Amino acid sequence: MAGEVLVHKHLIIRAEAVSPPMDVAFLTNWLGDFIKSINMKVLMGPYVVYHDVPGNRGITGAAIIETSHIVMHVWDEPSPAIMQFDVYSCGAFDPETICKKITKDFEVTKIDYKFLDRENNLTDIGGGTIKPLSHYNEKVKEQAGKILFNNRKEVDINTNGSGYTIKEGSNKGKTLGHIQIPTKYL
């Protein structure tokens, strides 16, 4: 971190997951791999515990990273399970990459997030709700494709609905963005 400018960003996620983590060893490994995948360094942990009390049953994992902390709480009694996930770091990271990973790894059906700049105050610098396109019926997916791409043939909507892939030109093969469907089509 020597010589780097600290950025003080905080990502707060609430997600609904079909396949939440419920195993201590699994979540311990997942958190370690996740931290490496976003180019952060573990200082302590991850520490994970499963709490088996009706009404508050679930798993919690936490790690102290070189630039701050990462914490996940999962309540697995409701269906889908409720997942709360915080990434606070003085190092740079991409909130969309994190949302995509959680969506993919835990079969998330809905994800709400806030992205805050905590350097001088709590400035909201991003957020919203993402529902993977796979969550919608075929008619909505077809309508979304027409709205977003005007029936252009140079893009494919990913099968998991998390974005689109460029099929032609200099950006061929790149996967971009989340698909957001206007609420009037939901």
In short:
By secondary structure, this protein is an alpha+beta fold.
Q: Sheet with the most strands?
A: 7 strands, antiparallel
Strand arrangement, largest sheet? 2-3-4-5-1-6-7
CATH architecture of the largest domain: 4-Layer Sandwich
Distance between the termini: 45 Å
Question: What Rg is obtained from the alpha carbons, in whole angstroms?
Answer: 18 Å
Helix content: 10-25%
H/E element sequence: EHEEEEHEEHEEE
Shape: globular
Write a structural description.
This protein is an alpha+beta fold. It is globular and about 45 Å long. The longest helix has 14 residues, at 24-37. The chain has helices at 24-37, 95-106, 138-149; strands at 9-17, 42-51, 58-65, 68-75, 81-89, 108-117, 123-130, 155-157, 164-166, 175-176. Residues 143-155 and 176-186 have low confidence and may be disordered. The termini are far apart. The chain has 2 domains: 9-130, S-adenosylmethionine decarboxylase, CATH 3.60.90.10; 136-175, no CATH class. The strands form 2 sheets. It has a 7-stranded antiparallel beta sheet. Strands 8-9-10 form a 3-stranded antiparallel beta sheet, with no helix packed on it. The chain contains 3 helices and 10 strands. 20% of the residues lie in helices and 38% in strands.
